[in-house]
Design a protein that fits this description.
The chain is α/β, with parallel strands linked by helices. The chain has a single domain, classed as TIM Barrel (Alpha-Beta Barrel), CATH 3.20.20. The protein contains twelve helices and nine strands.
Amino acid sequence: MSRIEGVMKALKDQGRKALIPYITAGDPAPDQTVGLMHTLVAAGADIIELGVPFSDPMADGPVIQHACERALVHGTSLRQVLGMVKTFRETDDSTPVVLMGYLNPMEAMGFEAFADSAVDSGVDGILTVDLPPEEADQVAPLFTARHLDAIFLLAPTTTDERISAISEHCSGYVYYVSFKGVTGASNINVEEVAAKVKHIHELTALPVAVGFGIRDAETAAAVGWVSDGVIVGSVLVDTIARNQDDPAQLKKALTDLLHPMRQALDGLAS
């Protein structure tokens, strides 16, 4: 059982929901990323999604695009990101880490070399935004053979046939995108999400975590009520941007934002 599977099972047994924050590695500076990861855990994160900066993050809105730009200004590379995870593992051997990014940097390193390095660094899962199930046969098996969870995106427009196809390659959890569009928008419709998540559960036994549009404790609780977990990204990345010149204040601001979400999600189990 992978770390991700173990955490999701433990949460389910406790009647709790997963809190999965996302930050971009190297933002606001490479030497702050590991500390921010520990801050997220202390604030209540169950799993961390760590973005690999990329020059053309097509699925992301301006907030995360700018985070990638800030990270790339410092020369943050995929190898450096793997090094950050390895450093994080020196003092945290329990919190799962998912690398979220695009195919190009992984392909440039070589998929097999990347998979080996990810395992060596302590990565638990890989979410490749631009890897469709039709092209996953050559890549996903490299991950699963090394006990790396291959995590895929589902959208409101994903057909039943594609959900089934994705489930064949996916492990750990599936990431349901709550609305059509890019990261950073806030027009989430909880009733529509609830109906879609219920339907996805009929087609896969995997946990369903919902991302896009989670901005505060209220939306986290509303989405957590109808899913297995919530993924929080743009609002955290925006907080990093607004506090990038004050590392101490940055950690406090992230905690002040994430901890109420943790409390709201835990309140669902009471």
